[in-house]
Amino acid sequence: MNRRRNGNSDDLTRRVALVHGEADHSVEGDRMALTAARVLADAGRHVTVVVPKGRAFERAARDERLAVVPLSCAPPDSTLPWESITRIGGACGVFWGNRIQLVHCTTPLPVPSVLPAARMLKIPVVAGIHAVTSDARIDRSLCRFTDLLMPSTKIAKEWITRYLRGKKTSTVRRVAFVPPSLPMPSDGVAGRAEVLRKKFAATRDDVVVAMAGEPNPGAGCDLLLEATAVIAQRGLHPPVWISCGPSRRAAEYCESLAVLAEELGVGAQVHFPGADVDRETLFAAADIVAVPSRIDPIGLTAGEAMLGGAAVIVSGTGGLPERVEHGVTGLVVPPIDPTALGDGIFRLLVDLDLRSSLSESGKEFALRYYRNDSFCNKLLEAHRFVSGGTSDRSGAPPGEIIPPSAPTPSRSDRSRDGEYTAPLS
User: Fold this and answer.
1) Would you give the DSSP letter of residue 246?
2) Of all helices (H) and strands (E), which one includes residue 70?
3) Which pLDDT tens digit goes with each residue over 106-116?
4) Shared domain check, 122 and 16
5) pLDDT digits over 226-254, tens only?
6) Are residues 318 and 201 in the same domain?
7) Is residue 424 part of a domain?
8) Do both 55 and 175 map to the same domain?
9) How far is residue 144's CA from residue 162's CA, in Å, rounded to a whole number?
10) Same domain, 246 and 318
11) CA-based nearest residue to 105, from 5, 163, 23, 11
12) What's 213's DSSP letter?
């Protein structure tokens, strides 16, 4: 397979391997990977999902009726060279057997054997970069082997660009900012939201505060409970719904949160909808959605909440400030500050005009920003470019060029330093 070929560029990207590696265990990362797979499949691409064996994402991809190839991709216990060679050979077999024309990585740290296998077969590689909020989060091998890096947040783009500009290498890299996509509201969600409110006896006058987070401290569920106690001290006792997903681990985590709520004196107003309530229904039923994350590099939950029509309040960390404009599409408060979070929620509880304004502006922004057609166009544009076609009618390639910071090494230097890759033309 040649990296540059003549012909229709769409024909050169018909068969795509979507690699969802082992480093991104977050719910948001899984959802973004599934969205990319759906978008590519809807655009007529034959998508083969490559995942490490035993990942929950394998089942989710099969549920979407996607072709799935599980690989034995965990790094070997020993550093014996033939073990790595065997894994790379297995990845080469997958790519060759499925006639893969392009590799699309969806995680910061992809399956270890995939990148060298793609390079050996001269298959172009693009990579979505999401969870980069510091130099330590940058995967060096991904930067080394990838033709086009596609950060989904501006902070990730800044870190990647800074890293590449300071790298002593002859490699020419290109970085293109590609905002994420989210499913638009589905039919019947309003009816499901009404049923949920009735289930928890929430009247039309009740202002429901909701949150959907992962079952770990990084989501900040405990911070919302502490903020609820702050609000209770000021005389308001709104119903608070917290969902942590359908897993057994989530159920156990919710039990620990229930104990904390009782200790804070707010147990009577805190409810846990459970595994049978999806995020879309939860957000459509809520009036206010809090995203008090300690760490949130992507910030998709805020977008989902805005699409559901809720007023959102988020912590100013990671990608969240990029998704929410303070005072326009939501409120942004300092991270890990229950008092500030409680004050912000209290403000939304007592100010109906502000709550309505943020809800309307937020939904309008989300409907425009997270559209699938915009995401699809940018994705296909990137794929065409790295496969040798022009990106659009003007022929302008996507993204920003990061030039080399050192002279092109000799052939002997290339084999010795291992950093040289063919520059993009």
Assistant:
1) S
2) strand 67-71
3) 875 556 678 88
4) yes
5) 999 999 999 999 999 999 887 788 889 99
6) yes
7) no
8) yes
9) 15
10) yes
11) 23
12) -
In the 3-class helix/strand/coil scheme, how is 323-384 assigned residue by residue?
Answer: HCCECCCEEEECCCCHHHHHHHHHHHHHCHHHHHHHHHHHHHHHHHHCCHHHHHHHHHHHHH
Helix, strand and coil content of the chain, in percent to the nearest 5, comes to 45, 15, 40
**206 in the same domain as 105:** no
Q: Are residues 28 and 157 in the same domain?
A: yes
Domain around 237: 189-369
Residues 97 and 36 in one domain: yes
Is a pLDDT exceeding 70 seen at residue 209?
yes
216 closest CA partner among 241, 265, 182, 250:
250
- Domain identity same for 363 and 255: yes
Spacing of C-alpha 278 from chain mean position: 18
Instruction: Give how many domains the chain has, as a whole number.
Output: 2
The C-alpha atoms of residue 10 and residue 389 are separated, in whole angstroms, by: 8
Task: Give the pTM.
Answer: 0.79
Give the C-alpha distances (Å, rounded to integers) separating 58 from 87, 216, 411: 19, 22, 41
232, 234, 237, 239: CA torsion to nearest 10: -80
